[in-house]
Amino acid sequence: MKILQVCSATDMGGGEVHVAGLVRELANRGHAVYLAVRPDSPLRDALAGIIASWHEMPLRNSLDLQSARAIAGLVDAHGIDIVHAHMGRDYLVAALACKQTKRARLVLTRHHYLPLKRHALYRWLLGDVAAVIAVSDSVRESVIERLGLPDDRVHVIPNWIDPERFKPIEREAARAMFRLRANIVVACIGELTPAKGQEEFVRAAATIVRMRSDIEFLIVGEESGENETFTANLKRLATTLGVAEKLRFMGRIRHIPELLAAVDVVVVPSWDEGFSLVTIEAMAARRAVLASNVGGIAGIVKNNTTGLLVPPRDVHALTDKLLWLVSDAPLRQRLSVQGQRDVYTRFGREQIIDQIEEIYNRVIGEGKNDA
Question: Cα–Cα distance between 155 and 326 in angstroms, integer?
Fold first, then answer.
């Protein structure tokens, strides 16, 4: 198969990690993989050493006609079978290209929990998409409602976990790497933005440090943009609440498996999520997870079996559950063991890639039948 992945990402987040992993595995399986990316795409570093055909183009916005023509030209010149777009602003560009060429089949992946625009242009251009991959049931329902697509064209295929990334790492060595000395370490990992719930995390931490002096809290990640206003507000809040000495802002960390090996609990207090890569990574690393009962997370964590769930934006509930978790070592052990077992059973890389590959083959077959 000849597969063109379209991704205008400028930073590496959960969706971009997914694209990089998909490209790597498809190339390993013998498919010819092409990439349409912006100049200086972060995917280049992530895919160093992978045999793929790279094509740079502006990919400025949803109506970038120049990029649509460039994609259509690639499809015709190389005989592309599948055009697969991963970011919302790339959907219409990829759809325009496929309408021009009439050759390739269009596949979209919807990673985000936010609904697509309720716009006639979206329905018209995306109405004949061959398949949409939604990363959770909640995302699937939103896509069907917004685009008016038949149920059988929207498939739930979650992101996956790579077992090779989370082989056991010696805990003390990992703690030394990040200079962690507290008895228990609790981490909140993700882009710094209000919707990820870091403010609620800070407030919960402030209450707990007044009861326990042996716990250290970490906020891992960066704020997008140059002003970093939210980050500054969080630091002021930590100082005001008297938790600043027990709360470290780590910035962006590339060595996530090592970080997870060093901590005891991972908190995911998001207001909503289409999926949550950090949740399945923490579970794969055999760490106890406390997360919001929202969107894609609700389909990952089985409450009180593989992790603990709390209502989003509820500081009191978050504080109570976190205090319970840091105070009960057998509970942490039980949740982490069962969580790791469950995540590898349900989100193994090979089985998820098999499902995507099956969709590619199916829509190509349908295209031949239509012709």
Answer: 38
2-160+348-370 and 164-346: identical CATH topology: yes
For the chain, the structural domain boundaries read: 2-160+348-370, 164-346
> What are 309's strand-pairing partners?
291
- Give the tokens for residue 222: 């960066």
pLDDT in single tens digits along all 371 residues of the chain: 999 999 999 888 778 888 999 999 999 999 999 999 999 999 999 999 999 999 999 999 998 999 999 999 999 999 999 999 999 999 999 999 999 998 899 999 998 888 888 888 888 899 989 999 999 999 999 999 999 999 999 999 999 988 788 888 899 999 999 999 999 999 999 999 999 999 999 999 999 999 999 999 999 999 987 778 999 999 999 999 999 999 999 999 989 999 999 999 999 999 999 999 999 999 999 999 999 999 999 999 999 999 999 999 999 999 999 999 999 999 999 999 999 999 999 999 999 999 999 999 999 998 776 65
What would the CATH number be for the domain defined by 164-346?
Answer: 3.40.50.2000
Measured from the Cβ of residue 304, the count of other Cβ atoms closer than 10 Å reads: 12
Beta bridge partners of 56: 37
d(CA 107, CA 361): 11
The model's pTM is: 0.88
Topology, domain 2-160+348-370: Rossmann fold (3.40.50)
The distance in angstroms from the start CA to the end CA of the chain is 18
